[in-house]
Specification:
By secondary structure, this protein is α/β, with parallel strands linked by helices. The chain is 69% helix and 7% strand. The protein has two domains: 430 residues, Amino acid/polyamine transporter I (Up-down Bundle), CATH 1.20.1740.10; 187 residues, HUPs (Rossmann fold). The strands form two sheets. It has a five-stranded parallel beta sheet, sandwiched between helices. Strands 1-2 form a two-stranded antiparallel ribbon. The longest helix has 41 residues. It is elongated.
Length: 655
């Protein structure tokens, strides 16, 4: 089987980015978006409420207040994020909001936090999902959990490399099954204990009063807020909706809002309902089981069909579906994480390669990085959900706080319109809640792992600032060289030279040029100087790279095509003014090397005696980082053409 055939079999056939039908095919309607992205939030009901409830210790009567606070907080954050969807219909989420409304360095902080957040989204979702599966089997199998977690991450990497929509379709039945089964269990569990619902609030008030009399109201509030903060994982996933707006079908704003509302309603119902089940049924942790598995076993203990007890089957199905939903949630990390990386790469905080699309129109570099990092997180923490949820919550609430602070800043600047002041109330309250949860979690769990995520996020921030500084330096140097060489083009402006005919049988110099005029002209002048009179034809070839920025915004794509074609015409005009035969070829694609290879094949067929030339930018202090930040297209093309028996000479251009 050929390499291309094997790739198509494993990952699917390439998609055409210029085809409007392709864009429509991969866009997510509300149902798919709710499954692929909303699952990240809904799945947190599998571990967030448990962490909060357990933190109450023996004062479980306070759980009624916890349930109410959880539901209110879900809607507070979600409704605030509806405003972000309106303001940023193209997506970008917390990173784009912070960059635009607070400043680029706030955006760097938010983006760095989101990258870590989505890595941990994958890790904690998979770890919690495997916990759910292993709740139904003997505790003797616990040592094998980490191997199953690794296998699940690898599977999700593969599904996402095939493209977003396909992976969601595979997991959709599991998502809907989870939702239906859990609604039934929650409603039945509460209804069957309805006699105790009326006494829940009086007991909670009595418990609070007794505790206050013994320890003081400060201790009561401290315990409650500790539990509330440690249950912060319940709200994670809500940010993935505005972060992935570019994946939505038109009209994007309406689809995004509908997805956010569906997610908020379903999460609030699940989280508050499960906390109420813990409270009403007096659930306690059992070794080798999640708290959800324990309470579901209690609820279904007397369920039978034709005299056969089906409790074990029902709990098994519920845990299997929980695992499936959590794997869907892990999938959200593969959707939104690479999107944030791509946005940061476009703004030059991250290597450009993270904005590059594969032939399946996914940011494959981002997907692979997120998957590998998630595997590392699982290995370091041993897949312990209690540790992962702390690391996870800190970055989520850092991003929440910055996003809502940016929204408040925007509304305040527009305060001359009273409507903006009114609309600032929700994000202000939400921002205060998120900031308090962030601070509380860091202080409470600093020595229990919180410092790890702070260090990692700090390192990403430092790396981003270093990358940005390098790219800006290179850009300034290229612009300086462009100005120097632009004089050569300008001296020929206005001339109308006669077109010199091409002789396809004669030696031909083929120049691979980029969007910068300096590189192509520099190589052209070098060839004329080193090989005087050798070449009779001069051909310029260029490939326009379609990355996430151009794919999301067709106007930028059209602008790129116009500018690219204009630059190639300038090269040909310059040659004609010198009495030289010249022509140009151009193409567009997501994979520069593949597209350029096809283009060079066309040129080689038209000009059998072609010799190819390319330029490689060389920094003053060349090192591993600088080599990583700039794509190696010239060297990749040299290997490709040499294997086909064609000559390619790389001309270094030192900046």
């Amino acid at each position: 089987m050929k390499k291309e055939s094997l790739s198509h079999f494993l990952f699917g056939k390439p998609l055409d980015p210029s085809n409007q039908a392709t864009r429509k095919h991969i866009a997510l309607v509300t149902l798919f978006a709710w499954i692929g992205l909303g699952a990240d939030g809904i799945s947190s009901s599998c571990y967030g409420p448990e962490e909060a409830f357990v933190a109450l210790g023996g004062h479980t009567d306070l759980a009624i207040f916890l349930a109410l606070a959880t539901g209110i907080t879900v809607f507070l954050i979600s409704f605030s994020y509806l405003q972000l969807i309106e303001l940023f219909p193209r997506g970008g989420g917390g990173y784009r909001v912070s960059s635009t409304l607070l400043g680029p360095y706030f955006g760097l902080v938010s983006g760095s936090a989101l990258i870590v957040d989505y890595v941990l989204t994958i890790a904690i979702s998979v770890a919690s999902g495997v916990d759910a599966l292993f709740s139904t089997i003997s505790p003797d199998w616990q040592p094998y959990k980490i191997l199953v977690e690794f296998a699940a991450v690898v599977l999700l990497i593969y599904l996402n490399l095939r493209r977003v929509k396909e992976s969601i379709r595979v997991l959709m039945p599991i998502f809907l099954g989870f939702f239906i089964v859990h609604v039934i269990l929650i409603v039945y569990g509460i209804a069957s204990h309805s006699y105790g619902v009326g006494s829940v609030l009086p007991h909670a008030i009595s418990e609070s009063q007794e505790m206050a009399d013994e320890l003081g109201w400060f201790a009561v509030m401290a315990l409650f807020f500790k539990a509330f903060s440690l249950g912060g994982g319940t709200y994670t996933g809500l940010e993935s909706v505005p972060n992935s707006m570019h994946n939505f079908a038109e009209p994007k704003v309406r689809t995004g809002k509908n997805t956010m509302l569906c997610t908020a309603i379903s999460l609030a119902f699940m989280a508050t309902g499960i906390i109420m089940l813990y409270l009403l049924w007096g659930a306690e942790r059992v070794h080798g089981q999640t708290l959800n598995a324990t309470v579901f076993s209690m609820i279904t203990a007397d369920w039978s069909v034709m005299g056969v007890n089906i409790s074990g089957y029902v709990v098994g199905v519920a845990m299997f579906l929980s695992a499936g939903l959590l794997f869907v949630a892990g999938n959200a990390g593969f959707l939104a994480g690479p999107a944030v990386l791509a946005s940061m790469a476009i703004d030059r905080w991250m290597p450009h390669s993270f904005s590059v699309l594969s032939n399946r129109l996914v940011t494959k570099n981002g997907i692979v990085l997120m998957g590998v990092a998630a595997l590392g997180a699982l290995a370091i923490t041993g897949g312990q959900v209690s540790v992962l949820v702390v690391l996870y919550s800190i970055n989520v609430f850092l991003s929440f706080t910055l996003s809502l602070a940016g929204l408040c800043s925007y509304r305040w600047r527009k305060r001359h319109n009273r409507r903006n002041l009114l609309r600032m109330v929700l994000p202000l309250l939400g921002g205060m809640v998120c900031a308090s949860i962030l601070i509380s979690t860091v202080l409470e769990k600093f020595l229990d792992g919180a410092w790890i995520t702070i260090v990692i996020t700090g390192c990403i921030i430092f790396l981003g600032a270093t990358i940005k500084r390098h790219y800006m330096h290179v850009q300034r140097r290229v612009e300086e060289v462009d100005k120097e060489l632009a004089i050569a083009f300008e001296t020929e402006n206005g001339k109308k030279p006669a077109e010199v005919p091409l002789d396809h049988s004669q030696p031909t110099a083929v120049f691979m040029v980029s969007g910068s005029s300096s590189s192509g002209l520099h190589t052209f002048l070098w060839v004329k100087r080193q090989f005087p009179g050798v070449f009779r034809n001069f051909v310029f070839v260029s490939v326009g790279e379609i990355d996430t920025d151009e794919f999301i915004d067709p106007e930028k794509w059209n602008k790129q095509r116009r500018e690219n074609k204009e630059l190639l015409k300038n090269y040909v005009h310059f040659c004609h003014c010198k009495g030289l035969a010249a022509d140009y070829y151009h193409a567009y694609g997501t994979d520069v090397v593949e597209t350029l290879s096809d283009l060079c094949d066309r040129v080689a067929k038209d000009f059998p005696k072609a010799t190819f030339f390319a330029t490689k930018l060389i920094s003053e202090n060349e090192n591993f980082l600088t080599q990583t930040l700039h794509n190696q297209t010239a060297y990749a093309m040299q290997r490709r053409l040499h294997s086909l028996g064609k000559a390619l000479i790389i001309m270094p251009m030192k900046l």
